[in-house]
Amino acid sequence: MTTTPASTRAPAATPDTAADPAPAGPAAAGRLPLADRAEVRAWTGAFVRTEARRLALTFGLFAAALVAGLIGPRLLGHLVESIKNGTTAGRVDVLALTFVAILVAHALLARAARTQATLLGERVLARTREGFVRRVLGLPLSEVEAVGTGDLLSRATNDADRLNESIRQAVPRIALAAVTLVFTFAAILLTSPLLALGLLAGVPFAALSTWWYRPRATRAYERLLAQEADVLAVTHESTRGAATVEALGLGPRQAGRHGAAVDRVVRTRQRTTWLQTIWFPSLDLATMVPMALTLLIGGLAYQRGEVGLAELTAVVLYVQALGEPLNDLLTWTDELQIGNAALRRILGVERLPKEEPRPPAVLDGHALRLEGVGFGYGPGREVLTGIDLSIAPGEKLVVVGASGAGKSTLGKLLAGVHHATRGTVSIGGADVARLPVDQLRREVVLVTQEQHVFSGTLRDNLTLAAREAEADGAAEGAAAPSGPADARLWEALDTVLLADWARSLPDGLDGEIGPGAAPVSPSHAQQLALARLLLSDPHALVLDEATALLDSTASRRVERSLAALIAGRTVISIVHRLDSVHDADRIAVMEAGRIVELGSHTELLAAGGAYAALWRSWSGAGTAPHGEGASPAAP
Length: 635
Fold this sequence. Notes:
The chain is α/β, with parallel strands linked by helices and 635 residues long. It contains 19 helices and 12 strands. The chain has helices spanning 37-50, 52-84, 89-137, 141-147, 149-191, 193-196, 203-240, 242-247, 251-303, 309-347, 407-414, 437-443, 458-475, 486-495, 499-504, 522-536, 552-565, 601-607, 610-620, and strands at residues 368-376, 382-391, 396-401, 422-427, 430-431, 444-448, 456-457, 512-513, 540-544, 570-574, 586-591, 594-599.
């Protein structure tokens, strides 16, 4: 009977007529595109060229195992014929021992072949994942945000695993099955051409059913992988936002979304299972019908003396042996279709437009300037309009305004995270959108209240930004150190008031932090981000509520500690709390995506406009330490 790989099994069900996944091409909303057949063929060709030696070794071992497996039935046929003809016990012993030796050789060769196939699959898995992640990291942030986490994670994990399974299992098994069929059929022809005629009866069953099944299964598997990505997206979203889900009572809503996504996966799996309930019985007929005809033809031919007992025994064993490779060939081809669908998804990222390499620009100083800047997150969704602003080197600018006024978007434009849809944002006279990323990050860095802690050591998390600067120094001929001196790391931690926490870790700087290791609270994550900022040493800092997760006392202590280290640098602070805005050289007040006021604290209070209203509201709430119009002491 036909057996299926574990990944294709599912409960029996009825067909489902869900819509096909989005075709290859530009990214659909929330998903990356799919690669086309030409791109898959190109990748396959490059893979074969790169791994030619390992592929040759793997297939060579499989072929040797196959030859050893084919010798066994022939020896067994001779053994039966010898016993029938009354041979000596010594000859029987020799044939029996030879048969056992062949079985042992076959097992050892097959094990070596499977080991090589596994190693090859792991190499391809690692290289494919690295290439995918590298390409995604090179995409504009807007593209990544439009796709969403689920599709990206699914392609880098589930789809890569499916591809690995195809290379490690399906490809060798299909190749081995195909060669086995060819060699076995050749052996049958050499043994008895007459008995080989019965094999032809299985061809229509296998060919017609596979022709019907393959295109339908391909569409179903592509749809299945996309729907599994949706499940992963909802799961990741609910896990990352667990506190928000609980606080807002969104548990039933998220559970409903997750259940709906899982239901779509189940229906598609039912579709693939229904297809298999038609295909697999046809494959069973393709095996059983030739077996029955061979026995019938062989029995009649033996009675007429047209074939001997040895030939009949060998051919029957060969035909019986054909069942497994035939089923392997077709069922692992089904698994290969899943791998092909996964590969199309992984390679789909290559279809997105690639940014042209940007040559380093010669800057005329470090002044920031916005001229006629507008920005929107999509058609009809403009959030900034008519922004004109010049920020001198070393200036301290604070941006205030109500939620939704466009403050954070302005900060992202200044840092080059997003690019203006109208107008120009420049640093030292050079358009931010045309600067290479490494040069841009030496000029300006953005820190927000939403920070990420990377799995690894505290040292790794601190030196992420510093290594780029060291690599740049090495490129200019300087010897690149292995990392910032520990004293520099401890100085940065001490500045952001994180040194005591770092010393509490079992291994200090080399202690593991993040998921699965020492937990990092949101406030510590924000302090860690500020420490990274100090180590990256940019000319300009954009701080978007960078101390918002700290309590007021800790926030003022961190700001006081940072003040000396950022002296002489350009600092753009986006704030909601007004307890330290009086220290700024200028304050920009934003409303509805525009800068409506610009000046010092004293000037804006005297003007009696939007800023004065904000200050009165802030002071009236009892948050400010002084009354209206007063300037609180520096924190």
